[in-house]
Amino acid sequence: MKFLMLSCGKATQLMEQRLSIGRLPFYQEWQLHFHVKMCDACRRFAMQSAAVEQAFRKKLENDEDPDFGATNEMPFLDAEMKEKILTRLRSSG
Q1: Distance CA 50, CA 24 (A)
Q2: Residue 45 has what pLDDT?
Q3: Shortest CA distance to 50 belongs to which of 17, 19, 25?
Q4: DSSP per residue over 36-87, as a string?
Q5: What is the pLDDT of residue 71?
Q6: More confident call, 65 vs 78
Q7: In terms of CB atoms within 10 Å, which end of the chain has fewer, N or C?
Q8: What are the domain boundaries of the chain?
Q9: pLDDT at site 53
Q10: Do 36 and 42 form a contact (C-beta atoms < 8 A)?
Q11: Among 83, 45, 86, which Cα is nearest to 62's?
């Protein structure tokens, strides 16, 4: 059972790796799946990373729409955090 246990650091590294290269090898996918099911912090990090990735992809696709994230597309972020993200995205373009 010990081979299934990942540290949070290793889990976040695998999440980022999966976002950048696609699927991980089966055993790493299984380890990550198991860890995220057990760890609230990593589950939250996974949701936030996916939302940020989606926002950046949408930004690249809809560059002419400055308010693309103004709706409730990321319900787990509070209004202040959404505004900070939108401000940074607007200023970077």
Answers
A1: 16
A2: 92
A3: 19
A4: HHH-HHHHHHHHHHHHHHHHHHHHHHTTT-TTTT-SSS-TTS-HHHHHHHHH
A5: 54
A6: 78
A7: N
A8: 2-92
A9: 81
A10: yes
A11: 86
Distance of alpha carbon 9 from alpha carbon 76, whole angstroms:
22
Please, which residues have CB within 8 angstroms of residue 41's CB and are 6 or more apart in sequence? 8
The set of residues, in sequence order, having a beta carbon less than 8 Å from that of 8 and lying 6+ positions away, is 35, 39, 41, 42
Confidence band for 19, pLDDT divided at 50, 70 and 90: confident
State pLDDT tens for residues 3-16.
668 999 999 999 98
Q: Which residues contact 35 (CB under 8 A, 6 or more apart)?
A: 4, 5, 6, 8, 11, 42
Sequence-separated (6 or more) residues with CB below 8 Å from residue 19 = 49, 50, 53
Residue at 57: amino acid letter: R
Q: Which helix (H) or strand (E) holds 2?
A: none
Tokens 């926002």 identify what position? 55
Residue with tokens 């989606």: 54
